[in-house]
Amino acid sequence: MPRSRGTERLLHAGLAALYFAVVTPAGLCVRAVRDPLRRAWDGDRASYLDRPAGGLPGGRAAERADG
Fold first, then answer.
1. What does the pLDDT look like over 4-59, one tens digit per residue?
2. Which sign does the torsion angle of CA 42, 47, 48, 50 carry?
3. pLDDT of 62 strictly over 60
């Protein structure tokens, strides 16, 4: 038996309420506790440039290092 239009609206309203009551506060709490993008200023670092883990593609890492 198909759902009525009112039941669909109630379902969407309930899902929206659940999202804004559970998921949004949880995300805000996580962002308040930690910085996933490491945006905080660190005065001890010499550079904020992160080198690629595998070097440059095509084996050009030695060319870049020399100059």
1. 888 999 999 999 999 999 999 999 998 889 887 777 888 888 887 877 777 666 65
2. negative
3. no
Q: How far apart are CA 29 and CA 26, in angstroms?
A: 5
At 8, which amino acid appears?
E
Residue that has been written with the tokens 């290092």 in this structure: 65
Q: Distance between alpha carbon 21 and the CA centroid of its chain, in Å?
A: 20
Gap between the Cα atoms of 65 and 12, Å rounded: 57
**Both tokens assigned to 65:** 């290092």
DSSP 19-37: IIIIIHHHHHHHHHH--TT
